[in-house]
Amino acid sequence: MRCNKTKGYNNQQIQVKMTKKIKFTKMHGAGNDYIYVDTTNYPIAAPEKKAIEWSKFHTGIGSDGLILIGNSDKADFSMRIFNADGSEAMMCGNGSRCVGKYVYEYGLTDKTEITLDTLSGIKILKLHVEGKTVTAVTVDMGSPLETGEVHFEDKYPFRSTRVSMGNPHLVTFVDDITQINLPEIGPELENHHLFPDRTNVEFAQIVCKDTIRMRVWERGSGITQACGTGACATAVAAFINELTGRKSDIIMDGGTVTIEWDEASGHILMTGPATKVFDGEIEEIEG
Ligand SMILES: N[C@@H](CCC[C@H](N)C(=O)O)C(=O)O
């Protein structure tokens, strides 16, 4: 049978689709990379879909997810975070530092102390500025919402600690982190029946009383080079289990952040880098 291209073509209804150009900035915090869009200039329809499409490395921009910066009636700015699988999370530690750098360096504010409205409440960002550049940001992440021990009754020989930093985390301390097969165990634990909302998964090794090496499997994004809320959860779990003091450096695959659990306020303070990679423009097909 021959295929009649001409007939097929003539019979087709031609749909004219409009395209719109969206400016974005690719940024990373300790290697945790997201696409940032200022939605006051470029409103994004269906962000769940865009997060999946744009996060793909071969056919999109390539990232761990999508972060939308917007206005808020409760704070200076708002932040929404979508993982690479399109799921929306409550909070993003590394992302919040990059939002601080973005709004300052792109002239949306000249404040060096900024309030940020997130699904996990209002966070306070303190920018460390050198000249006109934000080199690091300290974020008051608030108090950990929930902590608890987890004993797996099935195949895992671990005693783990559950910590909610708005996002759910499962932290497990091991003697040798290099022995952990994260690509295999990460998704198993993320989707374990004990966690109906899934969970982020951290494996950590104590280096010394104030230093922890950590690797992460993120809910909705897989292995990432760093996770800010995960670093907070790891420091909290280490302190609760009497493995460290209140302040520790968390060394991740892509960089280090410092976490301090302030005794007076009970808040977690996270300090770490924020880096711009490039600005870009992507075409969005409407309809
Ligand atoms: N990488 C982020 C956390 C992003 C959300 C997380 N994957 C979730 O679904 O809870 C961070 O730096 O905190």
TrEMBL record:
Primary localization = cytoplasm
Supply the EC number(s).
Answer: 5.1.1.7
Q: Which InterPro entries match?
A: DAP_epimerase_AS, DAP_epimerase_DapF
Is Amino-acid biosynthesis set as a keyword in this record? yes
Biological process, per Gene Ontology: lysine biosynthetic process via diaminopimelate
Pathway listed for it is: Amino-acid biosynthesis; L-lysine biosynthesis via DAP pathway; DL-2,6-diaminopimelate from LL-2,6-diaminopimelate: step 1/1
* Alphabetical keyword list: Amino-acid biosynthesis, Cytoplasm, Isomerase, Lysine biosynthesis
Q: Where in the cell is it found?
A: Cytoplasm
Q: One Gene Ontology cellular component annotation?
A: cytosol
Picking any one GO molecular function of the record gives: diaminopimelate epimerase activity
Return the similarity comment: Belongs to the diaminopimelate epimerase family.
What is the name of the protein in this document?
A: Diaminopimelate epimerase
Species of provenance: Bacteroides caccae CL03T12C61
What lineage does UniProt assign to this protein's organism? Bacteria, Pseudomonadati, Bacteroidota, Bacteroidia, Bacteroidales
